[in-house]
Design brief:
- It is a single chain.
- With about 120 residues, the protein is mostly helical.
- The chain is built from four helices and no strands.
- The termini are far apart.
- The mean pLDDT is about 85.
Length: about 120
């Protein structure tokens, strides 16, 4: 596991560094939390990650952003539904207006032949 030899002095300095910066206490707390779980988590590494920095100053912003993303996803789904409904209405309207266009084309052909047909169909 070690790729190079580490002296006892280096180990002691590193442990002192971890202790002075509260890392050992935090790791100990998280490991105690893990041990205290009624059922061990499926992914203990993720458990440690999620609990190692519970006091993250950005956590409130992260939660807020997640909420915004969820709200945007709901709004997007609603907008897509509205778009699909409007497209269906447009297609239906275009389909319904096609016979009128065909009728107008027939009227135009009739007037080209010299036959007069008014808008009422007389």
């Amino acid at each position: 596991m070690n790729s190079f030899p580490v002296s006892e002095q280096d180990k002691d300095e590193f442990l002192n560094y971890l202790d002075q910066n509260g890392i050992l206490d935090k790791l100990t707390d998280v490991l105690i939390m893990l041990y205290s779980e009624p059922e061990p988590p499926i992914d203990p590494i993720e458990y440690v990650r999620g609990n190692i920095y519970v006091d993250n100053p950005d956590m409130e912003e992260i939660v807020d952003l997640k909420t915004q993303i969820q709200n945007a996803a709901v709004e997007l789904a609603e907008l897509r539904k509205t778009r699909d409904e409007l497209r269906a209405q447009l297609e239906q309207h275009q389909h319904e207006s096609q016979p009128d266009e065909e009728h107008e084309e027939e009227l135009a052909k009739g007037s080209e032949n010299g036959d007069y047909v008014d808008a009422i169909g007389n």
